Amino acid sequence: MPQRLMTALSLSAAAALFASNAAASSGDAWESFRAEVSQKCLAAASSLEKASTVVDPFGSESFGLALVIGTPKGSEAAVTQICVFDKQKKTVELGGELTPDTVNIAVPTKAQ
Known about the structure:
By secondary structure, the chain is α+β, with helices and mostly antiparallel strands. The chain has helices spanning 3-24, 28-44, and strands at 48-55, 63-72, 79-86, 91-94.
């Protein structure tokens, strides 16, 4: 087989493999990923009452990203924290508390 034809076939096979992997990473897998990021971020933000999350649908290549919004215990003003979820280690880190004068986030309501 000529070298060009073998190269073209190899590239076609690689493209098909990547396309099938991308399709496998959709739908239920992404929903499961978002649920895991939300759960881990909420657990890490245990100092917040009535906490909720807004999860970046896909995150970055290495990290899941979310905003955690809630009220610190003993406070009346809501704060927002940035949550970073390490996709490999399955651990999270929270940023500091951002007050409404720094950032104003409204959690979207979900249609039921």
